[in-house]
Write a structure and sequence with these properties.
Mean pLDDT: 84
Helix content: under 10%
Largest sheet: 7 strands, mixed
CATH topology of the largest domain: Immunoglobulin-like
CATH class of the largest domain: Mainly Beta
Number of helices: 1
Order of helices and strands: HEEEEEEEEEEEEEEEEEEEEEEEEE
Structural class: mainly beta
CATH architecture of the largest domain: Sandwich
Length: about 300
């Protein structure tokens, strides 16, 4: 009787379906959001499939690269992508199907299998949404094959930062400088700003915390390195409550491997002089609160 029932089910499936079947016969759904950490991205997947006799489950990618949808020139080889099933890791590719599970329970049922996709050796990535289509195939022992596509996708958020260990510009007006109204006094400590960003960026100097300036202050960018595309190259006088565009640049991420974030930097010289020929200034240190702001271009 059991054999007769199986034959009837087999004939019904043959009549309803071609040799390759899709849709509800196999389905891949993500379980939660992808987990993104340094150098590793994982996503849990739940496979639901129709088993007729025993099943063999295969997977492959449909593209050679995982593409940044915001900038298709940024792409990760799919050879960095692995499928984890029952403690085993299987490297995926677009050139051949990878067998990763055999279900030996020999009867007809709807089965489930939990797997994990793991993208390794990513390093830091430029911001944007990355994706690659993956095909899952279920081959049964009665010559039926089912397949579905799953879009593996994750998003890298924008991230910019500025770091400096130079402190505030330190300008010292000596006793002799009080009476020398022609000299421009430079800061004792040049200010170096290190910039990291996974997008194109621009850097501003904000003087909104300064209400009044004594004398004439100016800045000059003495040096620029890294991914900077242009920067202010002239002496610029500082005034209170202003925003000054210092520099623009591209992403500081170079390549797609660990240790690929190479900071860009600028070195700023600040200077001071007495612009009023009829007044004298007191000697001492001149420091004012300056704020640096980085944002996406």
């Amino acid at each position: 009787m059991k054999i007769i029932i199986r034959i009837i089910m087999f004939l019904l499936l043959i009549l309803e379906c071609p040799s390759v079947m899709a849709d509800s016969n196999i389905q891949a759904d993500i379980a939660g959001s992808p987990v993104i950490t340094d150098n590793l991205i994982t996503a849990n997947i739940n496979l639901t499939y129709l088993q007729i006799g025993f099943s063999r489950l295969f997977a492959n990618t449909l593209d050679e690269y995982i593409i940044n949808n915001n900038n298709p020139q940024i792409k990760i080889p799919v050879t960095n992508l692995y499928l984890l099933c029952d403690g085993q890791a299987y490297q995926l590719s677009n050139t051949g199907m990878q067998l990763f599970y055999i279900d030996m329970l020999d009867f007809t049922r709807t089965a489930q299998k939990n797997i994990t996709l793991r993208l390794e050796n990513t390093g830091e990535l430029p911001a944007g949404t990355y994706s690659v289509p993956i095909r899952f195939v279920n081959r049964t022992n009665i010559a039926l094959e089912y397949e579905c596509e799953f879009l593996f996708s994750f998003t890298i958020d924008e991230k910019q930062s500025i770091s400096s260990f130079s402190g505030e510009p330190n300008i010292i007006l000596s006793e002799d400088d009080v009476f020398n109204k022609q000299v421009s006094i430079k800061n004792k400590n040049d200010i170096r700003l290190d910039i990291t960003s996974n997008t194109d960026w621009k850097l501003w100097l904000d003087t909104s915390n300064i209400k009044e300036l004594e004398g004439e202050y100016s800045f000059l960018i003495k040096n620029a390195a890294g991914s900077i595309t242009n920067y202010e190259q002239n002496y610029v006088r500082l005034l209170p409550n202003q925003h000054y565009l210092l520099a623009r640049g591209t992403s500081t991420i170079e390549g797609l491997q660990p240790g690929n974030n190479v900071p860009s930097n600028i070195v700023i010289e600040y200077s001071f002089k007495n612009s009023d020929a009829d007044s004298y200034l007191k000697e001492g240190i001149r420091q004012y609160p300056l704020t640096y702001v980085i944002e996406r271009e």
